[in-house]
Amino acid sequence: MFSFFKKKPPSGAPAATPATVASTAADAAGVAATPGERPRGALDWLNADVGELLFGKRPDEAVAPADTTSATATSPIETAPPSPPAAIAVDGEPEGERSGWLAKLKSGLQRTGSTIASAFVAAEINEELYEDLEVALLQSDAGADATIYLLDQLQARVTRSHVRDAAAARRLLATIVEELLLPLERPLVIGEHTPTVIMVVGVNGAGKTTSIGKLARHLLDSQQDVLLAAADTFRAAAREQLLAWAERAGTADATSAAPPSGRIEIVSQQGGDPAGVTYDAVVAGKSRGSDVVLVDTAGRLATQIHLMEELKKIKRVIAKAEPGAPHEVLLVIDGNTGQNALAQVQAFDEALGLTGLIITKLDGTARGGVLAAIALWSRSRARPLPVYFVGVGEKLADLETFRAREFAAALVG
Fold first, then answer.
1. CA dist., res. 389 & res. 271, Å (int)
2. Could you write out the DSSP letters of every residue in 340-371?
3. How does pLDDT run across 60-114, given as a tens digit for each residue?
4. What are the beta bridge partners of residue 4?
5. How far apart are CA 125 and CA 173, in angstroms?
6. Of 232, 190, 255, the residue nearest 399 (C-alpha)
7. 404 and which of 182, 213, 223, 339 could share a cystine (Cβ 3.0–4.6 Å)?
8. Would the CA dihedral through 339, 230, 385, 411 be positive or negative?
9. CA-to-CA distance for 374 and 396, rounded, in angstroms?
10. What is 233-256 written as a DSSP string?
11. CA 88, CA 92: separation in Å to the nearest integer?
């Protein structure tokens, strides 16, 4: 596994001193609270890798105690020496491994790619070709506006370049799609704030918790200490699902001979107040020196105003626990939802001010063209809304950084 993040040191803060991650109960128990924070109890270890920490009341309001479960490596891991001031970016997997992932993406978008590609087979550059492309793009969920934009651009460039070959026109279309998607290609920045607080939202069934587990693994591979906030407190087995992903992310798998070098913990409270759990997690992340706090929220339909208000409350509570946070608000979108995905982006952005997207489930019937519609809409924002990751399966390695050229090639076929 390789890192996918630009990491910057906190502005104006000295470099952190290398430390050793404890892996035993004796090392982890009995940590004293700092002034102004709630006292912390001893770890009640369930086994060598998983423990539970009970908190008391929060200073500003009484909430039921939240428990913290940690999954760490079975041996002490010394963190890497402090990074130099310059930003560090390791963009994606090595090309050999990346090509394997790209094959999965092309397979997932095969339905769209083959439909668009078939319009160019034995075709002449005429109105019939553009009509066939219009149908193919609409069937790919690109939507009316993006379809018109892409066809207008293609016709203009074909005319300007005097293109007469259908294969050359197809390559032009791939380039146009790539240029449209390119502003969405930006790496997730980790390290400007400690901890970096990331709030993850989305509708029911979009794959939020699964994506959080995969994202946590990438962070751990980048030597980041991660704390998960299980703020989806009322869904049955939501806590257990997140815990399972935390344990899975914190252990070695087929793609890695050794466990990742970061530490992962979880703060949860079954049936409690989501905002209260989130507050506890951010405070715990600050006191323990976590690099990243990932907040898993309950699935919310954008049309359910009262439920969207709960997400706004969580965001406000995060800001109270850590001024300036959340530093990222990520929306997870099911790639199979078609044009409804654009409506979700618009609604969640209006309510929460999104900073990035994760597109999931591009491994089945997903058409993928809606990303062109999102990119076209994104031009109306002060800043383009980046797509940080795309997912093509259930494995930890099936979440990869978004690259416009790869996606355009898979989409056009």
1. 31
2. HHHHHHHHHHHHH---EEEEE-TTSS---THH
3. 333 344 555 444 333 222 333 444 333 323 345 555 566 676 777 877 787 777 8
4. none
5. 13
6. 255
7. 182
8. negative
9. 26
10. -SSTTHHHHHHHHHHHHTS--TT-
11. 13
Token pair recorded at residue 3: 């890192």
pLDDT computed for residue 15 by the predictor: 41
DSSP 102-164: HHHHHHHTHHHHHHHHHHHTT--SSHHHHHHHHHHHHHTT-HHHHHHHHHHHHHHHHHHHT--
- The dihedral built from the CA positions of residue 397, 93, 109 and 336, taken in this order, carries a sign that is positive
Q: What is the pLDDT of residue 248?
A: 76
Taking CA atoms, 293 is separated from 9, 230, 262, 265, 282, in Å, by 16, 11, 13, 10, 7
Query: What is the C-alpha separation between 409 and 398, in angstroms, rounded?
Result: 18
Residue whose structure tokens are 């715990």: 284
Report the alpha-carbon distance of residue 11 to residue 16 in Å, rounded.
12
Confidence band for 14, pLDDT divided at 50, 70 and 90: very low
pLDDT tens digits, one per residue of 380-390: 998 999 999 99
Amino acid at the residue 169: A
Note the residue count of the chain. 413
* Residue 227 C-alpha from the chain's centroid: 15
pLDDT for 281 beyond 80: yes
Burial 214-238 (b: 16+ CB within 10 A, else e): bbbbbbbbbbbbbbbbbbbbeeeeb
Beta strands 50-54; 44-45: pairing state: antiparallel
The predicted-structure confidence for 346-378, as pLDDT tens digits, reads as follows: 999 999 999 999 999 887 666 788 999 999 999
Tokens (6 digits) for 407: 């996606």
- Condensed to tens digits (0 to 9), the pLDDT of residues 170-199 reads 999 999 999 999 999 999 989 899 999 999
Q: What is the pLDDT of residue 87?
A: 32
Domain map (residue ranges) of the chain: 1-7+34-74+93-413
Q: What pLDDT is recorded for position 237? A: 60
Quick one: tokens of 272? 């409690």
CATH class of residue range 1-7+34-74+93-413? alpha beta
Contacts of 369 (CB under 8 A, 6+ apart): 112, 137, 140, 141, 142, 143, 146, 411
Contact 321, 353 (CB under 8 A): no
**Distance in angstroms (rounded) separating the CA atoms of residues 318 and 111:** 42
